[in-house]
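Hi R.,

Here's the input for the zinc ion complex you asked about:
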Amino acid sequence: MAKVVVAILAAVAACFVILFALSTHSDITFDPQPKVIGISTPVTVRISNPHGVRRITATVEQDRTSTALSETSEGATRIMFWRAHLPAREFRFVAGSSKAPALKEGRARVTVEAQSNDLRGSHDTISAEVQVVLRPPSITTDGFQHYINQGGSELAIFTPAGSWNEAGVRVGGATFRSFPLPGNPNQRFAMFVHPWDTPADVAPVVYARNAAGNEATGHFWFKVFPKRFRKRDLTIDDAFLNKVVNQIDPTGSGDLLTRFLKINGELRWKNNQTLMDLRLKSDEKFLWTQSFLQLANSQVESEFADVRSYMYQGKKVDQQVHLGFDLAVGQHTPVIAANDGRIVWAAPLGIYGNCIVVDHGYGLQSIYGHLSEIAMKEGDLVRRGQTMGKSGSTGLASGDHLHFSMQIDGVQVNPIEWWDEHWIKDHIRSRVNVP
Ligand SMILES: [Zn+2]
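And here is the predicted structure with zinc ion in place:
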């Protein structure tokens, strides 16, 4: 009899040991790692434990005082073998002074603790050192009258205050960085675009955000002149498709038209993305002094934001918007820099063929496409009117011409204003001291 009792006790003890040994730890990670918390900052952690978790708590600690932020729990299960492979779960909570009113500006630590839902119930924790930012940003705007053309450029000045670490101008979905105003660094200025595809009734907004994600916005006086962009049919034939497809994407598969449509759509988007990314290669100073030059004696074949219908064998097969000017002179005409600047791209770029991009500072850049010859390299400084290469028909071009375009902070803009010294005087020089 005693032997049986001993055997049962031994079996129970063995089960206990096995269950205990099979108990697991929780793997906890922040997604993403919080660095700053404010009034109500969302925090997410991922917790994985094959046995699940019984209890999760989030706390914030500052000056040795710990305050609970959030807690969740479920019934304890200690001997559930079959719950062996539970998927990872997310735990979301809000950190900040809305949950912990005693928090003040400075350093703090956010901790999440999870307890395994098994026999041992192991406690695992993860902590993040954070900065508490509670002061809101604020912003005051300039008193200028901003007359803006749809698809055109403008410049605004504003003064962010309070706690902020990012400020600029937003027009619809496009944002434009700001820079310290030369000679008055408490103020900021931003050049921005009312993008051609943003409705004219969308108001530009100046904004300042703090590191905790709180944002202040401000409005200035403005009037947007709507612009009706031209519509053009562009007839394409097999000779053109052959030339373009074999030059831009010689290894592509499918029939000629399919390959062309991929170039005209997907590759166009990708190439514009590459141009947009060049905005980060911009000097924080005016590299130019005079107005921008249009290629001399050139015939304008296409204008900014022409809406093009591509006609093939009598049918419309595609539609794209042409974000530049096509300027034709003659075969292999010298292509000049529109203004002083620094070369930030000098290489083939898909539909743009051999392409040069010149940075003029503060996010303003000019783009030259379809060149037959590039005589510059990245990093070179150029002077206004300096020859940088020769016109051609590389990329998505049927005849020899220069595709000329400009962009501000990666958003392509009508260059026509930048060719006009009066416009520059009224909109740029009158507000910012261009050297
Ligand atoms: Zn063009």
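One thing worth noting: The longest helix spans residues 256-277.

Cheers,
M.
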